[in-house]
Design a protein that fits this description.
Length: about 230
């Protein structure tokens, strides 16, 4: 485990730095890396969720202070995602199903990179009825999948909001950060019923992702224009 304690924090720092620039926590990538290390399967989701919390907590605060958070749009999603993230986290699934769902999450990350930047140029006002009508079922589905996997769900929510043109890029980052935080916390409570964490390794990883997340979110907000965040 010593070589992991030395090398993984470096990798996780750069993951946190990259993902925090668009409001994500990096949970899907943490999962993929941890799977490759051969850690016990039950330990992987709780570890990734704690790292998620460290990154997006700081990232959300930075986005919130900059005035990009849109709670009116996000509340309907969170109303159902929070309890279902806990439910998903409390369910023990097979390693095969976990690997399949992780593959889908990584595919979503890859597809996110191919969304045309033109879709981010204009937003459309969203009536509150439409936000609740779509947000409740979509939030529940995203929360449940997030809980099963041990991610926050922002990699699904952010492209969805952007493609519907409800938000612009930095607003999407703020919404994703908040969504990931609440779902990661809820899912973590569920996972702790049957999973465990290596506290020594986790300490090193949380320090690394906190620093990476802080730097990445601050760089994105202060020095990187919207259009560059899509590339």
């Amino acid at each position: 485990m010593n070589h992991l304690t030395f090398s993984l924090p470096i990798v996780f720092f750069f993951i946190a730095f990259s993902y925090s620039m668009v409001g994500f926590g990096g949970g899907s990538s943490y999962l993929a890396i941890l799977v490759l290390t051969g850690l016990p399967y039950q330990n992987i989701p709780p570890t990734a969720l704690v790292c998620n919390l460290m990154v997006v907590g700081a990232g959300f605060w930075n986005h919130y202070r900059a005035g990009y958070f849109q709670p009116r749009l996000l509340i309907p999603f969170m109303m159902t995602s929070i309890p279902l993230a806990y439910l998903g986290g409390a369910i023990s699934i097979s390693k095969e199903l976990f690997s399949f769902l992780l593959g889908l999450a990584l595919l979503a990350v890859a597809l996110r990179m191919f969304i045309s930047e033109k879709k981010f140029e204009n937003t459309t006002p969203v009536p509150w009825q439409r936000a609740w009508f779509l947000g409740l079922p979509l939030g529940g589905g995203l929360g449940f999948i997030s809980g099963l996997l041990g991610i926050g769900g922002g990699i699904f929510l952010s492209p969805l909001l952007l493609m519907m043109r409800w938000v612009e890029l930095k607003e999407a980052g703020a919404c994703a950060s908040c969504f990931i935080f609440v779902n990661s916390f809820s899912g973590l409570l569920g996972h702790l019923k049957w999973g465990h964490v290596d506290t020594h390794l986790l300490t090193a990883l949380t320090v690394a992702v906190f620093l990476g997340g802080q730097i990445g979110s601050r760089v994105a907000l202060r020095h990187v224009p919207n259009i560059q965040l899509t590339k």
